[in-house]
Amino acid sequence: MLYGKEHVRRYQETDGAEGHDWNNTTVLLLTTKGRNSGKPYTTPLIYQQHGDDHIVVASKGGDPDHPEWYKNLQANPEVGVQVKGDRFKARARAADESEKPELWQLMTRTWPDYDNYQQKTGREIPVVILERVE
């Protein structure tokens, strides 16, 4: 099973032929700029499409702290996204209170463990909307 850096490498090399379909769901690659280093970091994330937007969840498996990629996009919301062979720039933002319930349901349908992760942590797990800008 693909994981971490190996997942990113195989996904990039094959335009998602390896790595897009994963554990009965779909994965995109999100590239953020390190908030301290300024270096690019690419993370494979489960996603779903919602209209023209792509939706991801900053769960970190229910950890008490946000994932690093989420902290990076809070500092700089301009991100890179790869879905299969489609590479594009996007603006990332957390779903607001009116948007989140519908998007949370969308994401838990594809990855039911998100509900478990939320129960496991005292932090509100953000749902992130990736809006294509080019």
UniProtKB/TrEMBL annotation:
GO CC, any one term: plasma membrane
Taxonomic superkingdom: Bacteria
Substrates-to-products reaction catalysed: oxidized coenzyme F420-(gamma-L-Glu)(n) + a quinol + H(+) = reduced coenzyme F420-(gamma-L-Glu)(n) + a quinone
Pfam families: F420H2_quin_red (PF04075)
InterPro entries cross-referenced by the UniProt entry: F420H2_quin_Rdtase (IPR004378), Split_barrel_FMN-bd (IPR012349)
Transmembrane segments annotated in the record for this chain: none
Gene Ontology MF: a single term: oxidoreductase activity
PANTHER family to which the protein is assigned, alphabetical: F420H(2)-DEPENDENT QUINONE REDUCTASE RV1261C (PTHR39428:SF1)
UniProt xrefs under NCBIfam families: hi_GC_TIGR00026 (TIGR00026)
Family: Belongs to the F420H(2)-dependent quinone reductase family.
Record's protein name: Nitroreductase family deazaflavin-dependent oxidoreductase
Gene source species: Nonomuraea zeae
Lineage: Bacteria, Bacillati, Actinomycetota, Actinomycetes, Streptosporangiales
